[in-house]
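Q: I'm writing up a methods section and want to include an example of the input and output format. Could you take the sequence below and give the corresponding predicted structure tokens, formatted cleanly so I can copy it straight into the document?
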Amino acid sequence: MSSFLPMLYGIMASFFFSFSFIMNRSMELSGGYWVWSATLRYLFMLPLLLLIVGLRGNLQVLLYEIRKQLWVWMGWSFVGFGLFYVPLCFSAAYTPGWLLAATWQITIIAGSLLAPLFKEKLPVQGLLISLLIIIGVIVVQAEHSDQLSVKEDLVGTLPVLLAAFAYPLGNRKMMKVCKERLDTYQRVLGMTIASLPLWIVLSLYAGVKAGAPTVGQIGQSALVAVCSGVIATVLFFTATERVKRSSQQLAAVEATQAGEIIFTIFGEMLFLGAAFPTMLSWTGMCCVIFGVIFHSLLPKNR
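A: Here is the clean output for your methods example:
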């Protein structure tokens, strides 16, 4: 199978994923509580996905699959959604979106390093090309690091490193669990349902700690739910589903998420008044772009 379409899906997903970094930072700057930013996304995703899967007539099959392996679904959904998004929202409370998007690119390496857990060979060529992307990320970070304190650096890096490994791990494990029995919409909805206990507990905590979310935060969270939670997640999961039999192509699709840093920088310039990138930042972004292009040109590893 050609890698063009999955790569295109991956790049489109990175565009819609960037809404999370931009909107989460916007909500934080306007006084929104980060726990609400995390929980509202998935609470809004639930009815949207229920409608989509229900209209496609696939809901009963999904519920049967969840009941059959309830704890497996809950465990890997907690990893793939909970340990992914909660740390990202926590970091957004302290650091700008461009830094989160840059650090998040560690997921490119993380996805490749997880290959042995699935009895696959490490995609060595993909890892080498991923280094070019990481170099680009480091250049962009170095350009702005003097603007941040040590605390901002740490909380903008450590939680995101956890998220960068949790997201591909949860995604790949659930692909193994679902096999060919469920489509992408069912899988995303199933993981949303299975992670509901976490979001309910966190929403109760947020209500006690910070009170009800503001109207602005509710609206922005709804936008994140549609763009990042539904559109981006379905696009990305569809892309990985198409190439799951090739660790090389899977690494390439995961590498497309490097586009998030570029989309986030321009989004923050447009909506949050961020400064125009310097020549050094553009150099770093070019490394990211070329790394993604080289990934797409790698021969398929059967």
